[in-house]
């Protein structure tokens, strides 16, 4: 949800900022902009569209600049346009800002400023920040920034330039991430660490309400009361290879090919001496009566997959979307434990849901892929997934890593509750076998299936039990990157309404990996076929029937963990369909990777 970058130092600020924006583009690509100090003036260039458009516009401009800020936008308030693009200058062009987040009280603040005669140039909530700073009567810029943070309600990561303070950047954050990077050539600000790889040797994750002030020489941090704070720097341990596309055409393809690695690394983490499960207090786990799993999108779907796995082990789980958990009536349940799942660890709804659980003194575990994320700092216990940086908007390898971690966690809970002395990873051998099978999986039918989908009007994914959870995830993948209308539903629910939509222009993809449910699912297949739809079956079983138009065979494993395998061809299906349609799977319409706003 919007990417912020800032640079001050010896190098060309223009080059550093534009390169950083390319790395942050997955956070939003509605518009991009840059503002630098040029001969003492704030020089602003911004453009609707992707970062490449901005790069083109900036050619031969902004020469010899050493300090500036940049932004790539995912639109919330105001359409994607030049005028709504960041950075924003104040009315007198003396202050320039970039913002990630949402200013919830912007209408009130804007109304007050308008009454004082301030004219606004955009429809955004963000512009009010620049205008408030311009109007401030505080004697120092640092005090103006402090005053600003006391006025804003909502979420924000903000970088600020003040005319007259050349080569200085101010920044604040609340509920949106912001990182300071340090190198021998200067200082950087960035919404995430990825944009700082190969640029900096150390980085500092700004804390809530922290104010930083950066110049050529140093970076100073202050708390809300402007008391100086010590800065903790962490070593940069990512390499360029971790975050580059390498020889792959898209990040999503690279990440699908990394699914086996993501599963393997997540298992290995549990086998290591830093085994995260050992840090969970045994009495807490033993006494748990109610598990609530909370997440959004793919992370929620991973939770649903685990729900079935847990049920087989007599553990009751309720899965709730974070956006619902936040606002539903809270009912206290005896010995509840909340598990939050988030690839990025920055999803606003998930973070807020976690805060609510904490307010009610419920113990919290997070399963995240980004060790430095906000959610990790807030939770009581952390179980890391080891998928490595996931850049494509559509989540793939992180999903498999999440379900791997959840299987392990459910096994651990089961063993502690039943006083079974379990090895750290009961499923280790089976999961390694899955890794091996996925590494050798042949996607040969997927091109044909993509073609079939494009020749038809709508797609349904159906399944029973855990296969429904996989259907949900498969459907989400397809719709988010190929813009094709698709729905998922329980196979048994078709005849209660949705069957009315099934005709000869429909493709129904049936996921059937559970032996005890197979015959029941076959009944649904016959009902669908009788209405003329094209039926595609994804299964490990041998099936001979005319009711199926296409069989996607998958390798077999313990049926409790078949979800690791059955999703794999579906991830590739989404990718190939988007590419066949001429879309960029890494940058789906209207979406962004990290949803840091509500
Ligand atoms: O970073 P998170 O796991 O918290 O993100 C949650 C969702 O926004 C995310 O899974 C989203 O649904 C993906 N685009 C799905 O591919």
Question: Can you walk through the features of this model?
Answer:
This protein has 598 residues and is of the alpha/beta class. It has 3 domains: 3-238, Aminohydrolase, N-terminal nucleophile (Ntn) domain (Glutamine Phosphoribosylpyrophosphate, subunit 1, domain 1, 4-Layer Sandwich), CATH 3.60.20; 251-439, Glucose-6-phosphate isomerase like protein, domain 1 (Rossmann fold, 3-Layer(aba) Sandwich), CATH 3.40.50; 446-580, Glucose-6-phosphate isomerase like protein, domain 1 (Rossmann fold), CATH 3.40.50.10490. Helix content is 35%, strand content 23%. It is built from 19 helices and 25 strands. The strands form 4 sheets. It has an 8-stranded antiparallel sheet with strand order 3-2-4-1-10-9-11-15, with helices on one face. A 7-stranded antiparallel sheet has the order 5-6-7-8-12-13-14. A 5-stranded parallel sheet has the order 17-16-18-19-20, with helices on both faces. A hairpin with a 5-residue loop joins β7 and β8 (168-174). α3 (106-115) crosses α4 (127-135), α8 runs parallel beside α14 and α10 packs antiparallel against α17. It is globular. The structure holds 5-amino-5-deoxy-1-O-phosphono-D-mannitol. Residues 296-299, 342-344, 347, 350, 393-395, 476, 480, 594-595 line the site of 5-amino-5-deoxy-1-O-phosphono-D-mannitol.
Bound chemical compounds: 5-amino-5-deoxy-1-O-phosphono-D-mannitol
State the helix count.
Answer: 19
CATH topology of the largest domain: Glutamine Phosphoribosylpyrophosphate, subunit 1, domain 1
Helix content: 25-40%
**Annotated CATH architecture of the largest domain:** 4-Layer Sandwich
Give me the CATH superfamily of the largest domain: Aminohydrolase, N-terminal nucleophile (Ntn) domain
Quick one: biggest sheet? 8 strands, antiparallel
């Amino acid at each position: 949800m919007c990417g912020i970058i800032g640079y001050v130092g010896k190098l060309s600020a223009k080059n550093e900022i534009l390169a950083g924006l390319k790395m942050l583009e997955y956070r939003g690509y509605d518009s991009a902009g840059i503002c630098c100090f040029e001969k003492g003036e704030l020089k602003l260039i911004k453009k609707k569209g992707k970062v490449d458009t901005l790069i083109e516009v900036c050619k031969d401009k902004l020469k010899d600049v050493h300090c500036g800020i940049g932004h790539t936008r995912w639109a919330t308030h105001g359409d994607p346009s030049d005028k709504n693009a960041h950075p924003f200058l104040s009315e007198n062009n003396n202050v320039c800002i970039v913002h990630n987040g949402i200013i919830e009280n912007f209408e009130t603040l804007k109304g007050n400023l308008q009454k004082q005669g301030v004219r606004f140039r955009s429809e955004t909530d963000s512009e009010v920040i620049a205008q408030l700073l311009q109007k401030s009567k505080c004697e120092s810029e640092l005090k103006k920034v402090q005053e600003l943070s006391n006025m804003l309600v909502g979420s924000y990561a903000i970088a600020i330039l003040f005319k007259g303070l050349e080569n200085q950047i101010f920044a604040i954050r609340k509920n949106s991430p912001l990182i300071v990077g340090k190198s021998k050539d200067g200082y950087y600000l960035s919404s995430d660490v990825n944009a700082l790889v190969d640029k900096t040797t150390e980085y500092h994750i700004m804390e809530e309400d922290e104010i930083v002030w950066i110049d050529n020489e140093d970076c100073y941090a202050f708390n809300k009361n402007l008391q100086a704070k010590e800065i903790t720097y962490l070593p940069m341990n990512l390499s360029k290879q971790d975050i580059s596309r390498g020889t792959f055409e898209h990040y999503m393809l690279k990440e699908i090919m990394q699914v086996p690695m993501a599963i393997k690394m997540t298992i290995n983490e549990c086998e290591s001496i830093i085994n995260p499960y050992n840090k969970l207090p045994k009495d807490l786990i033993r006494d748990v009566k109610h598990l609530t799993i909370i997440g959004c999108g793919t992370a929620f779907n991973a939770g649903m997959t685990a729900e079935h796995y847990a049920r087989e082990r007599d553990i009751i789980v309720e899965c709730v979307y974070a956006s619902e958990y936040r606002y539903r009536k809270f009912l206290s349940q005896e010995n509840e434990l909340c598990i939050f799942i988030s690839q990025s660890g920055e999803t606003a709804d998930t973070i807020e849901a976690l805060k609510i659980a904490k307010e009610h003194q419920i113990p919290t575990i997070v399963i995240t892929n980004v060790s430095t994320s906000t959610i990790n700092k807030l939770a009581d216990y952390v179980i890391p997934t080891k998928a490595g940086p996931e850049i494509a908007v559509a989540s793939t390898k992180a999903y498999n890593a999440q379900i791997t971690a959840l299987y392990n966690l459910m096994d651990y809970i089961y063993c502690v509750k039943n006083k079974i002395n379990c090895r750290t990873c009961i499923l280790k051998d089976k999961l390694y076998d899955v890794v091996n099978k996925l590494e050798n999986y042949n996607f040969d039918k997927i091109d044909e299936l993509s073609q079939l989908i494009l020749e038809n009007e709508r797609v349904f994914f159906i399944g029973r039990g855990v296969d429904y959870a996989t259907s949900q995830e498969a459907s989400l993948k397809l719709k988010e990157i190929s813009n094709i209308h698709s729905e998922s539903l329980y196979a048994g629910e078709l005849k209660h309404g949705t069957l009315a939509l099934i005709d000869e222009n429909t493709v129904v993809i049936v996921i059937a990996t559970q032996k005890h449910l197979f015959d029941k699912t076959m009944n649904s297949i016959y009902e669908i076929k009788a209405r003329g739809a094209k039926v595609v079956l994804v299964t490990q079983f041998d099936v001979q029937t005319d009711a199926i138009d296409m069989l996607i065979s998958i390798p077999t494993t313990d049926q409790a963990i078949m979800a690791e395998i059955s999703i794999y061809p579906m991830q590739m299906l989404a990718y190939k369909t988007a590419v066949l349609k001429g879309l960029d799977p890494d940058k789906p319409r209207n979406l962004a990777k990290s949803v840091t706003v509500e």
